[in-house]
Design a protein that fits this description.
17% helix; Molybdopterin biosynthesis moea protein, domain 2; alpha/beta; 4 domains; Molybdenum Cofactor Biosythetic Enzyme, Chain A; 6 helices; 400 residues; six-stranded mixed sheet; Molybdopterin biosynthesis moeA protein, domain 3; elongated; 30% strand; 28 strands
Length: 400
Amino acid sequence: MTELISIAEAEALVAEHMPSFGSERVTLDRAAGRILRQRVHAEHDHPPFDRVMMDGIAVSWRASLPRAFTIGGAQMAGMALQTLADDSGCIEVTTGAMLPAGCDCVVPVEQVRREAGTYHLIDGYQPSRGQFIHPRGSDCVAGTLLLEAGMRIGAPEAALLAANGVASVEVGKTPSIAIVSTGDELVDVESSLGEGQIRRSNDIAIATALRLHGFDRVALEHIADDIAATQDTLGRLLGAYDVLILSGGVSMGQRDYVPAALDALGVRRVFHRIAQRPGKPMWFGIGPGQQAVFALPGNPVSALVCAIRYVRPALLVALGMTPAPKEYVRLEADVDGNAMLTCFVPAYVQTDAQGWSMARPVPARTSGDFSALPHTHGVVQLPPGNACTPAGTAVEFYRW
């Protein structure tokens, strides 16, 4: 029997052997959610000019500022730079406009009243020099590093890319992924159930966990419990996809054909079996064409735990994403553990009055019991060595 390896060893071995999927250039409108594979510097000063921050009037400030100003022109957003010719006058301005030359103070429209061609300050209002002006380069100067490779492109990142003229973005290339369910008992979602049958759900769950993080090149396959069919189908998929994720057929049973079929196809085993519950039978290897192959247990909770704990993080890093810091929560209640195995327990998480994320364990009765998972946010990871992990303990947390 293959020796069990630890959680840390499994994580390190996956990281060490995962291939890179390379990069590609996409237009900015197709970059949402993708992993940036280039550094982005400021094309120019931000803002690129002294920017008006309020609708109102721009004036030249001085200690003996008059209370009335003759209108000397207008500076609207997008207009070429205007100049205040008479420092006893003013220029009407709008938010986002360039600050007119000769002006160093903006008075909001709420603090003035207009009478014909003159603006009067509201009684008691005292403006100050530099108010409501966003100075040129105060956010950043030209050449400043704005975005690092490895960041996920969300709304703020997309805004910076657009503002700096990056219309074509280098991003991690999304791999093609085949998710394969094995077992004679499995039928399609649309099918009626016969005696001894269940509907396929592991492949749907794993695909959803990946699609939520930008992996949209996913195909679903099914293999019956037959050694020849298993080897033929896996051989075909290895020739067509960058990543294979299998569910079922990976344990030690008489009809668990996956490890033998992968070995016959030249897929090099990196490890098989992890000291954890659920998910102990997990298998990982690399195909002859550098395909990443993850073979997960067939029980639903086991498969999903392995997918979010190992598969999804490894795929994101292979895209070029900077590894996220581990998330920790405190246990609301004591949780049964295991002296020899790392345990993963579904949990509901909420924030307490002190700002701590508190996890309320919702243990599954078995690794096949996934009916309560929609009422949880993910799983807590309980280290081995304790029959019980007490309430208040800080533990790692992995979200669905």
